[in-house]
Structure formats: C-alpha cells, structure tokens
Specification:
two-stranded parallel sheet, mainly alpha
Length: about 325
C-alpha cells in the first residue's frame, strides 16, 4: 500500500535498486568467481549460486571466468571488449555501421542483463550454425528459461502480490532493473575501455608466457578511485587491476593489496590507470564516440573548417571528408 505514496515509492525503488546492484556485483559476481569457496558453505559456493540476472550462472561463469579473464582485451576472443557490437581499436577497419555505436552502447547499457545473456551464448560465432549445434540449442533453452523466470518474477508475480499497488510495483521493478543494468555496464566499461587502455590481437598472445599473461592483465585493466561505499557498490571491481591479477581472492582484500600492486607498477615503469567514476565513465564514452568515426576524422574536419568562409563551402568540405580515415598502427601486439 505504501507504494501508492510517491515518496515511499521513490525510497522503495532506490532501496530495491541498491539491493539488485549488491546482489549482482558484490555478492553474485564474487561468489561465482569462487572467492568464498574456501568457507565450504554451499549457500555461497560458486557451484551452487544462482543470481538475480537474465544470464544463467553456469553460462556466465564460462563466458566471464574462462573466456574474459583468460583473453582479457584480446580482440575477437574477449566478448567483454565491445560486446561484439562496437569498434574498440583504431586498427579495426572502420565501417558505416560503427557510426551507430554510441546508440548501440546506450541500448546495451539499458538492457545489460540481456546483453550479457546474449554474448554468453556467443551468438556471433554460433548463430549461422544454430540448427546443427546441439550445445548451442541447449544453452539457448537455458537462457530463455532464465529470462522467462526473471520476467515472471519481476513483472507478474511480485506486482500481483502487491494487490492495488500492482502498477507501482511493476514500475519499481522496471526502474530498479534499469538502474542496476546501467550501473553494472558503467562499472564494467571503466574496467577495460577508458582511453589509454590497450587491446591485443590474437597473434600477439601466441606463445604467451605466464608472466606475459599477468602483464597483459595489468595493462588491460583500469581502476576507479573512491571510498568504501563506492568500492562496495562496484563489487570491488573498482580494483579491476587487482581483480584480474587475483580473481579468486575475496574482494574485500583488494584495497589491502592495492598499494603493493602499485609499487610493482612503479618499479617497472608501468602505468597504473585509475581515476574517479565520472572521469573513467567519461573517458570510456569518449572512446566509444571517437572510434565510431574514421581515424582522425574530427581533426580533419576541424582543420578543414578553419579554411572555409561560407556555409556552402563548409558543406562541400564535409562532403569531401566523408570517406577518409585509414587505420593507424599503434595498438599493442601489432
């Protein structure tokens, strides 16, 4: 009944949003990494935990723990890098499709739990041969079953249990899911996509030693600076560098080891990338917009417009530039 009172609805929706964020990031993500398996408590064990998310736990653990953490920032191997829908490096050939990637990224942020479920299925690799791929069909059925369960819970059962407040409850669940999706997407983008974070080619990791693997984790990750509340709300993924070095270390220990990790970076002259949440989110989105255009396109536009004197000349200059932009050769592993 209190959800019919607007201030109570706002307060309740905010609380539900925080609860969903904590369940996914501080609890679900870290439990499924096996960070608390040493307690031998089946209730918080990586083999038994199922989270409040559209992606089934077993599929997420394969895509995230096995693929993302093994092939961090390797183009064509790490689905967390651009989610298969964005240009993520200057050396990737530009196509007109990429002009829309700021929009694709925004849509992905709003529907992030479903985006995760989709790339956990590796749709790009499996879609064409889906009818002949029994494993893909099995995984697809599991994802659809999980999505159906989540939708029924949030948008049918809980609203019906609210009686007269059903519309308000449905709206609250929708908003809370949206907030959780955008927050999770933002935190994850900050971890591997800010300006200055390199990508790697498949050929660059051929014959990669264990030491080189650790070095790649260090270079390909970025942190978010902040206080205890921020770290908790990110599931301590604000310590992305430490997490990629020690993914099964309990997340509450990352702040403790961070100074020692920074000392290693300084000793070997490496850049320990970190910044505030607004700075890192802004940097990642700047990169999304920059790579949506051909390499150097904006610089060429600015230089060209400096020489024009009339609107007609400006239009002609922009038309002349509309096809330019050859890839540079500056990414790691080329």
């Amino acid at each position: 009944m209190f959800s019919l009172f607007p201030p109570a609805w706002v307060l309740g929706t905010a609380g539900l949003s925080v609860a969903k964020i904590l369940e996914n990031m501080e609890i679900g993500h870290n439990v499924m990494h096996g960070q608390w398996d040493w307690m031998r408590d089946t209730k918080i064990h990586s083999t038994t935990w199922e989270w409040d998310n559209a992606s089934p736990a077993d599929l997420w653990k394969h895509a995230h723990n096995e693929l993302h953490h093994t092939y961090t920032n390797v183009i064509g191997k790490d689905n967390d890098l651009g989610y298969g829908i964005m240009r993520v490096d200057e050396d990737q050939r530009w196509m007109p499709f990429y002009l829309g990637q700021p929009l694709w990224n925004l849509i992905n942020a709003c529907l992030f739990e479903y985006g995760i479920a989709a790339y956990d299925l590796e749709l790009g690799k499996n879609w064409k041969r889906r009818k002949d791929n029994a494993e893909f069909q099995r995984r697809s059925k599991a994802v659809l079953a999980k999505i159906r369960k989540q939708v029924v819970k949030d948008y049918v059962v809980h609203p019906l249990l609210s009686g007269p407040s059903a519309p308000a409850t449905l709206a609250a669940n929708f908003v809370a899911n949206l907030v959780r999706n955008i927050w999770a997407h933002s935190v994850i983008m900050c971890g591997h996509f800010p300006e200055g974070i390199p990508t790697f080619t498949k050929t660059s990791i051929v014959g990669e030693t264990r030491g080189e693997w650790y070095l790649r984790q260090m270079l390909a990750s970025a942190n978010i600076s902040g206080g205890p509340v921020l770290h908790m709300m990110t599931g301590n993924l604000s310590f992305q560098i430490e997490h990629h070095l020690f993914p099964d270390l309990p997340s509450n220990r990352y702040a403790e080891i961070a100074p020692r990790v920074q000392e290693v970076f300084e000793r070997y002259g490496l850049t320990y990338t970190t910044g505030s949440l607004p700075r890192q989110v802004g940097s990642a989105w700047k990169k999304v917009f920059r790579l949506a255009l051909p390499n150097g396109f904006l610089d060429r536009v600015i230089d060209k417009l400096r020489t024009v004197r009339t609107p007609r000349a400006a239009v002609a200059a922009l038309s002349e530039l509309s096809g330019v932009g050859k890839p540079s050769r500056r990414a790691v592993g080329r």
